[in-house]
């Protein structure tokens, strides 16, 4: 109990100390590129909680959610097929590993050239960049399922669908979840890059515009918002993962104890 209290105190106290240090260091700042934290928070409130919330924040979040969901569905579905059908695995394995070696942000200029500057470009960029971590984690997770579990499924004469739902998916679930978490981070990065390089709307575009216009407080406010969204998205994912994989989380806690 004491250890949990210490961990909670450190988890809450450290960010508060960082904010306090930032506030103190910038309090009397006259540097154009390092404005006082109070001024940044004021612009944060004005921009992202009121003026641009509906037009930019919700647009960025919508693109992130749609692109990530599509990447997850494609990655898990194609991962199962690739892992369980040898012909598909032999055909796609080299292509998958070639494409995943390309930096995700490098895909954005390609899609701008092919699709243009619309919302379709952003969704395609996010989806295709984020699909590979989930896809590869799914393939590895399915292929590493214990042969004993497969034999149990055969003994009980489970159908193909029952094996997928009751044997393969639970066994590979933790590894698939890890891939999905990496995909979420990639989707977030590409969302920002696609807005900065190919849009006049969204958090990334507004932050870049503020930097180019020397509106430093607005730029810092945009960076602060991106940090909050990234932290919040990861926190929500962890909560959902712990709920869905409660059995796995519980078994790890028991093993550590």
Description:
With 257 residues, the protein is mainly alpha-helical. It has helices at residues 2-26, 37-51, 53-84, 86-100, 107-115, 119-143, 147-155, 160-198, 203-212, 216-244, 246-256. α2 (37-51) crosses α10, α3 (53-84) runs parallel beside α6 (119-143) and α5 crosses α6 (119-143). The protein is flat and about 75 Å long. The protein starts with a helix and ends with a helix. The model has no long low-confidence stretch (mean pLDDT 85).
Distance between the termini: 13 Å
**Structural class by SSE content:** mainly alpha
Low-pLDDT runs: none
Portion in beta strands: under 5%
Give me the strand/helix succession.
HHHHHHHHHHH
Overall geometric form: flat
The tally of beta strands, per DSSP, is 0
Based on CA atoms alone, the radius of gyration comes out at 22 Å
Sheet with the most strands? none
How much is the average pLDDT? Answer: 85
Q: Helix content range of the residues, please?
A: over 70%
Short description:
The chain contains 11 helices and no strands.
Which key terms come to mind for this protein?
mainly alpha, 11 helices
Give the helices and strands, then pairings.
Elements lengths: L1 H25 L10 H15 L1 H32 L1 H15 L6 H9 L3 H25 L3 H9 L4 H39 L4 H10 L3 H29 L1 H11 L1
Helix pairs in contact: 2-3, 2-10, 3-4, 3-6, 3-8, 5-6, 6-8, 8-9, 8-10, 9-10, 10-11
């Amino acid at each position: 109990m004491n250890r949990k209290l210490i961990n909670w105190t450190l988890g809450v106290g450290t960010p508060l100390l960082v904010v306090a240090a930032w506030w103190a260091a910038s309090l009397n700042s006259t540097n154009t590129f390092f404005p006082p934290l109070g001024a940044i928070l004021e612009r944060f409130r004005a921009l992202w909680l009121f003026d641009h919330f509906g037009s930019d924040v919700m647009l960025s979040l919508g693109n992130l959610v749609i692109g990530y969901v599509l990447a997850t569905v494609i990655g898990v579905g194609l991962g199962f097929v690739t892992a369980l059908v040898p012909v598909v695995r032999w055909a796609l394995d080299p292509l998958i590993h070639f494409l995943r070696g390309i930096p995700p942000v490098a895909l954005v200029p390609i899609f701008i050239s092919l699709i243009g500057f619309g919302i379709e470009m952003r969704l395609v960029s996010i989806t295709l960049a984020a699909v590979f971590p989930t896809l590869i984690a799914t393939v590895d997770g399915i292929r590493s399922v214990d042969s004993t579990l497969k034999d149990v499924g055969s003994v009980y004469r489970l159908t193909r669908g029952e094996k997928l739902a009751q044997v393969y998916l639970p066994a590979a679930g933790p590894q698939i979840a890890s891939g999905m978490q990496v995909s979420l981070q990639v989707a977030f990065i590409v969302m920002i890059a696609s807005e900065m390089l190919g849009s006049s709307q969204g958090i990334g575009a507004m932050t870049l515009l503020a930097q180019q216009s020397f509106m430093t407080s607005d730029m810092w406010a945009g960076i602060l918002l991106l940090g909050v969204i990234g932290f919040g998205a990861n926190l929500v994912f962890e909560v959902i993962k712990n709920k869905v994989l409660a059995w796995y989380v519980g078994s790890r806690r028991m093993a550590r104890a």
